[in-house]
């Protein structure tokens, strides 16, 4: 069974942040984890400005909730990412879904049609043969996004892939499903 990597000096010294509110340790935490948190938020939200705004809230919340961190329960980075994901979940729906709406519009414009309706009709007509040969992950994304009304960001998070990658694969797959000659 694999073992977790030992804590490095920065992680071990961060205990004082949580115990005593040491701002120097907080700055170390920020410098170490902010780039990774911003990356996760950017991929999840699909909007760098919104991700930056959310990141400020994440690190404010980390400071405010530092006493709740339990090193025996989870790694520090895991705790930080959980706080980041709670920030995403706490955003108003219109902000969380703006990127998804933009992607839906972009895909609909490529084909000058409502892809959701098209896919539902095609799925009803083909039944179990719908989307044969489509990558399993993207077929699941189609189900989540077009048949269960998840956002692109939500589907990407569920599937563990970046939103932009899902967008690119979705456009390619819809072309494949439509039998389009477009590339």
TrEMBL record:
InterPro entries: RNA_pol_sigma-70-like, RNA_pol_sigma70_r2, RNA_pol_sigma_r2. Gene3D superfamilies: 1.10.1740.10. GO terms for molecular function: DNA binding; sigma factor activity. The keyword ATP-binding does not apply. Keywords: DNA-binding, DNA-directed RNA polymerase, Sigma factor, Transcription, Transcription regulation. Residues 29-84 form the RNA polymerase sigma-70 region domain. One of its GO terms (cellular component) is DNA-directed RNA polymerase complex. This is DNA-directed RNA polymerase specialized sigma subunit, sigma24 family.
């Amino acid at each position: 069974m694999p073992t977790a990597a030992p804590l490095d000096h920065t992680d071990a010294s961060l205990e004082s942040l949580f115990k005593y509110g040491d701002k120097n340790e907080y700055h170390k935490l920020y410098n170490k984890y902010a780039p990774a948190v911003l990356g996760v938020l950017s991929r999840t939200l699909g909007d760098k400005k919104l991700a930056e705004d959310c990141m400020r809230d994440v690190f404010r919340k980390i400071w405010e909730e530092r006493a709740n961190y339990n090193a025996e329960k989870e790694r520090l980075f895991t705790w930080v990412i959980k706080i980041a994901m709670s920030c995403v979940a706490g955003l108003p729906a219109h902000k969380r879904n703006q990127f998804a709406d933009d992607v839906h519009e972009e895909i609909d414009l490529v084909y000058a049609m409502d892809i959701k309706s098209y896919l539902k009709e095609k799925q009803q007509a083909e039944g179990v043969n719908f989307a044969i040969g489509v990558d399993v992950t993207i077929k699941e994304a189609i189900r989540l996004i077009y048949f269960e009304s998840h956002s692109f960001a939500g589907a990407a998070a569920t599937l563990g892939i970046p939103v932009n990658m899902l967008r690119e694969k979705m456009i390619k797959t819809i072309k494949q499903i439509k039998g389009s000659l477009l590339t």
